[in-house]
Amino acid sequence: MLFMVIESFKNRDAGAVGKRFKLSGRMLPEGVAYQASWVDSTGMRCFQIMEARDPELLKTWTSRWDDLIDFEIVPVESSAEFWAKVQLD
Questions:
Q1: CATH number given to 2-85
Q2: Dihedral sign for Cα atoms in the order 76, 80, 81, 87
Q3: Do the Cβ atoms of 78 and 12 come closer than 8 Å?
Q4: In the chain, which ranges are continuous DSSP H helix?
Q5: How far apart are CA 71 and CA 47, in angstroms?
């Protein structure tokens, strides 16, 4: 399953997030895979596509960062997958 993860850096402190990432990496549990990411132009939010076989595994990952980041996690699928399922009249 794919997920759009929207990270909002607490206290607008991207530096703290960057330091931990440089020191420890993404700290992903087994079963979660990073796909791609983008940071907004203000440097206060990060948008990531993550893949996980079980959505509960994302909780393990976010718990390692939740002192620095607020998370919004949205299940997503590709446009092609979505439109292949939609019945258009």
A1: 3.30.70.1060
A2: positive
A3: no
A4: 14-24, 56-63, 79-85
A5: 10
Report which residue type is found at 38.
W
Which of 64, 80, 74, 62 has its CA nearest to residue 2?
74
What are the tens digits of pLDDT across the range 28-86? 999 999 999 999 999 999 999 999 999 999 999 999 999 999 999 999 999 998 999 88
Q: What is the pTM of this model?
A: 0.88
Q: Residue ranges per domain, the chain? A: 2-85
Query: CA–CA separation, 89 vs 56, rounded Å?
Result: 37
> Among all chains, which residue has been given the structure tokens 């940071």?
39
